[in-house]
Design brief:
It is a single chain. With about 290 residues, the protein is α/β, with parallel strands linked by helices. The protein has two domains: about 140 residues, Rossmann fold (3-Layer(aba) Sandwich), CATH 3.40.50.620; about 140 residues, HUPs (Rossmann fold). Helix content is about 45%, strand content about 20%. It has ten helices and ten strands. A ten-stranded mixed beta sheet has the order 3-2-1-4-5-10-9-6-7-8, sandwiched between helices. Helix 3 runs parallel beside helix 5, helix 6 packs parallel to helix 7 and helix 8 packs across helix 10. The chain starts with a strand and ends with a strand.
């Protein structure tokens, strides 16, 4: 597995670096710092002066970036794998996606800095945008990653579930105690027409089918060496996933993500809602 660590010098990004101590050895650990050098603020500035100002600012930001990389490298486990360090100039989201593709990255690990709900909904944080557009799996570290003893794996469809099983079968974490496979039926009653009610026998049948699906996925995980159980509930997917994580004292939430692109960025998704509210790290597998 090839891992990319996106670091910006914040405490959250260093928490992401420390999270590597819970991962098994990587084939390569790419430590990346994006330097977004602003253009001179005065359009009437003499071109030579503007160029010199830009060059001086880029040099200073690169020196700062070198220190960030040195600090990040010092926090990595000694046996985590070969380390490659890069400073790239550009917007962080563009740099991360470009380097991840160029270096054939399997897992992006990054921190999540809270910027406030309104701003995040309007603009999207870097971590959320990476989750939206990256082809690799993404581990978003909102709090320090503890030894992974308890995982809540949220499954929605067979394809997503199989991707998650294949990913976990690689034993990416040094230790894993148990996995709760959770399937959420989004609504107990239809929103339209008003007053409509799904007959109780139908509700039970749907819940039984979802439970069987979760148990089948749990069986696949058991077959590759995990202790796993399957369960299903009705309700809001994001809320139920977070509730299960709290009940199971989860160290990590794992989710699939079937959709990337503009529609998900604009309309949101369960994975984004969980990322925004989770009190433990979240892994989006692809």
């Amino acid at each position: 597995m090839r891992t990319l660590l996106a670091v910006d010098g914040s405490d959250h990004s260093y928490d992401a670096v420390r999270a590597c101590s819970q991962l098994t050895r990587s084939d390569a650990v790419v430590v990346l710092h994006a330097t977004d050098v602003p253009a001179p603020a005065y359009p009437m500035m003499v071109p030579e002066v503007a160029r010199d100002l830009y060059t001086a600012q880029e040099r200073a930001m690169r020196e700062e970036g070198e220190q960030v990389l040195r600090t990040a490298e010092s926090l990595l486990p000694l046996n985590g794998g070969p380390v490659l360090k890069f400073i790239e100039v550009g917007k962080p989201i563009d740099v991360i996606l470009s380097v991840a593709e160029r270096e054939r990255i399997d897992l992006i690990v990054m921190g999540s800095r809270g910027v406030g709900a309104l701003r995040e909904l309007a603009l999207g944080s870097v971590s959320h945008r990476v989750v939206t557009h990256a082809a690799a799996s993404v581990l978003v570290v909102s709090t320090p990653l503890r030894p992974v003893q308890q995982i809540v794996l949220a499954v929605d469809a067979p394809k997503d579930a199989d991707v998650a099983v294949r990913w976990l079968a690689r034993r990416p974490f040094k230790e894993t105690g148990a996995i709760t496979v959770l399937s959420v039926i989004p609504y107990a009653h239809p929103a339209w027409p008003v007053g409509a009610v799904i007959p109780e026998p139908w509700q039970k049948e749907v819940l039984m089918g979802a439970t069987q699906f979760a148990e089948q996925i749990a069986s696949k995980l058991t077959a590759v060496g995990y202790r796993a159980k399957g369960t299903a509930v009705q309700g809001s997917p994001a809320s139920e996933i977070l509730k299960a994580a709290a009940t199971e004292h989860a160290d990590l939430i794992v989710m699939g993500s079937r959709h990337r692109g503009l529609s998900r960025a604009m309309l949101g998704s369960t994975s984004h809602a969980v990322l925004h509210r989770a009190t433990c790290p979240v892994l989006i597998v692809r």
